[in-house]
UniProtKB/TrEMBL annotation:
<keyword id="KW-1133">Transmembrane helix</keyword>
<feature type="transmembrane region" description="Helical">
    <location>
        <begin position="88"/>
        <end position="110"/>
    </location>
</feature>
<feature type="region of interest" description="Disordered">
    <location>
        <begin position="290"/>
        <end position="313"/>
    </location>
</feature>
<feature type="transmembrane region" description="Helical">
    <location>
        <begin position="116"/>
        <end position="137"/>
    </location>
</feature>
<dbReference type="InterPro" id="IPR014509">
    <property type="entry name" value="YjdF-like"/>
</dbReference>
<keyword id="KW-0812">Transmembrane</keyword>
<dbReference type="Pfam" id="PF09997">
    <property type="entry name" value="DUF2238"/>
</dbReference>
<feature type="transmembrane region" description="Helical">
    <location>
        <begin position="149"/>
        <end position="169"/>
    </location>
</feature>
<feature type="compositionally biased region" description="Basic and acidic residues">
    <location>
        <begin position="303"/>
        <end position="313"/>
    </location>
</feature>
<feature type="transmembrane region" description="Helical">
    <location>
        <begin position="57"/>
        <end position="76"/>
    </location>
</feature>
<keyword id="KW-0472">Membrane</keyword>
<feature type="transmembrane region" description="Helical">
    <location>
        <begin position="32"/>
        <end position="51"/>
    </location>
</feature>
<feature type="transmembrane region" description="Helical">
    <location>
        <begin position="236"/>
        <end position="254"/>
    </location>
</feature>
<protein>
    <submittedName>
        <fullName>Uncharacterized protein</fullName>
    </submittedName>
</protein>
Length: 313
């Protein structure tokens, strides 16, 4: 009952969050400039596609505008600080995937586009996993501690899990809705035990394939059509590379924390300082998930850990 009375109304909380996100976006000049440029480009594409009657592209543009706000929302809501360089990478990744990749067909124009994005995805997912565990590692409220090596391993495993789940999603969309998210590839040799006439589980090799016919019609691809396997494995391999790169960066960062490793710190999220808690500055009440009793308990714990705190009669 007490919590519901003290909790501000939804409209007030929404305005507070909106103000805090606005302050967060403007915090770093570099990432703010990138955000503004990308936002203008997305709006321009949305207007153009609207007048062309391509409403699916308009929907993707609206989704992109929301995703561009995601880094600021995460920083405000969870009180973590994304370095400007990492935030720019996230913004560019969203724009490259949705606007350039989907709407401008860069996936088809540039065969390497999907590979580059999956590499970035592995890097970013590892950064997210690393920051989650590192923040728990350094929290006074959670008894949780991992060595730098195990922290890097968890970061790597988190990234690979995200990559695998995404491939599950692509496969499901292809099977259930007839999409082609797992892009096909043309190969010129295959090996299959299904071609063994003796059914003895021996792989039969066919090389120099230059023509494949389906239902009597030549596909005109100049080779055999691989249905997504190569694309899936390439995606997981480059995700692996991105995950390894950030895990190594995270390991070095934790191992040398406080020793002035400035370059690495530009890619590692950290907990927000009190003066940059924009949700609080915008009028929020700190951790809204805490009931008044829990807030009092937290204040008591903080006073107990404050060496300058003295009780007065």
């Amino acid at each position: 009952m007490g919590e519901s009375k003290n909790k501000p109304p939804l409209r007030a909380r929404w305005k507070t969050m909106e103000a805090a996100i606005g302050m967060e976006i403007r915090e770093h000049k570099g990432s703010f400039a990138v955000y503004v440029v990308l936002r203008v480009l997305v709006i321009a594409v949305a207007v153009l596609k609207f007048f062309n009657g391509d409403y699916e592209a308009v929907f993707l543009c609206i989704l992109t505008l929301l995703l561009l706000l995601a880094p600021a929302f995460v920083q405000v809501r969870f009180r973590i600080e994304l370095p400007s360089a990492l935030e720019v990478i996230v913004l560019v990744f969203v724009f490259a995937a949705e606007i350039l990749g989907e709407i401008s067909s860069f996936y088809e124009i540039f065969p390497f586009w999907d590979t580059v994005l999956h590499t970035m995805n592995g890097f970013l997912a590892a950064a997210i996993g690393f920051s989650l565990v590192d923040l728990l590692n350094r929290s006074d409220r959670v008894k949780f501690e991992l060595s730098p090596l195990y922290l890097a391993i968890v970061s790597f495993c988190f990234s690979m899990t995200i990559g695998v789940v995404w491939e599950f999603f692509e496969f499901s969309m292809d099977m259930l809705f007839g999409f082609d998210m797992q892009k096909d590839a043309v190969v010129h040799s295959i090996s299959s035990v299904m071609l063994d006439p003796a059914h003895a589980n021996h792989a039969v090799h066919i090389n120099d394939i230059t023509q494949v016919a389906v239902n009597g019609r030549d596909l005109g691809l100049g080779g055999y059509l691989d249905i997504g396997l190569i694309d899936t494995m390439e995606d997981l391999i480059v995700n692996f590379i991105g995950a390894v790169v950030f895990s190594v960066i995270g390991f070095i960062y934790v191992k040398n924390r406080g020793k002035g490793v400035s370059v690495i710190s530009r890619f590692v999220p950290r907990r927000k300082s009190h003066d940059r808690d924009y949700l609080r500055l915008a009028g929020g009440d700190g951790d809204a998930s805490l009931a008044p009793g829990a807030q009092a308990h937290q204040a008591q714990r903080q006073s107990q850990h404050d060496p300058h705190h003295h009780d007065h009669p």
